[in-house]
Amino acid sequence: MEKQIAIEEIGIKEFVRTVFSKWKMVLLIALIVSAVGFTAVLFLPQEYSASSLISFDTSVIPSYTTDAADILSSDYIQAQVESKYTSEIPDDVEIVFTKQGSLQNSSVVQIQVNSNNPDQAIELADLWADVGVEWLKDQVTDLEDKMILAKEA
Questions:
Q1: CB atoms closer than 10 angstroms to residue 96
Q2: Dihedral Cα 106, 81, 49, 105, nearest 10 deg
Q3: Which residues make Cβ contacts (< 8 Å) with residue 108, sequence separation at least 6?
Q4: Which is nearest to 56 in space by CA: 128, 135, 143?
Q5: 148: helix, coil or strand?
Q6: Residue among 98, 106, 102 at smallest CA distance from 125
Q7: Helix or strand or coil: residue 128?
Q8: Which run of H or of E encompasses 48?
Q9: Which of 58, 88, 128, 153 is 20 to 30 Å from 79 at the Cα level?
Q10: Are 139 and 63 in contact (CB under 8 A)?
């Protein structure tokens, strides 16, 4: 034999009447939740995000990797950034490299820096992009030099 649970339906009028009859309780709960939320926001650390986009010509990326994000996150690029940065990069700074897309022979990568210091986030995102562009220019120069040597041979 199945047990049947009686479900009592209440109309909108009954619902509104119940809420208004308990308005003090509803207001108290709303105030408590708002106070807790406001207090939590005050104690959360502020985090700022800055990003740069860089486009790589994939024809000059070394054959061992085809992902520009891998190049930007490499130890070599990180060492270059650290040598040019005015101070040590704090451990709480988060740097994310995301491939945004590809167009024919180019790959677009977003460099996103998250920090509790807005100036630091901006400076690191710009510096990382500058170092990436510098590396790319060096790759193009090396490729041009190899082509000149090949033509001379």
A1: 13
A2: 0
A3: 53, 54, 55, 56, 68, 99, 100, 101, 102
A4: 135
A5: helix
A6: 98
A7: helix
A8: strand 48-57
A9: 58
A10: no
Q: Which ranges constitute the DSSP H helices of 5-50? A: 12-21, 23-43
Question: Angle 45-50-54 (CA atoms, 0-180°, nearest 5)?
Answer: 155
Q: Please tell me the distance from the alpha carbon of residue 146 to that of residue 34, in angstroms, as a whole number.
A: 66
Q: pLDDT, tens digit, for every residue of 21-31?
A: 888 888 999 99
**Average pLDDT over every residue of 6-28:** 81
- Do the beta carbons of residue 108 and residue 55 sit within 8 Å? yes
Measured from the Cβ of residue 5, the count of other Cβ atoms closer than 10 Å reads 5
Is the pLDDT at 50 greater than 90, yes or no?
Answer: yes
| Sheet with 106-115, edge to edge strand ranges | 48-57, 106-115, 94-103
Nearest partner of 55 among 108, 128, 133, 134, judged by Cα: 108
Contact 92, 124 (CB under 8 A): no
Give the model confidence (pLDDT) of 120-130 as tens digits. Answer: 999 999 999 99
In order of 6, 38, 95, 115, 142, the CA distances from 83 in angstroms are 73, 41, 17, 19, 23
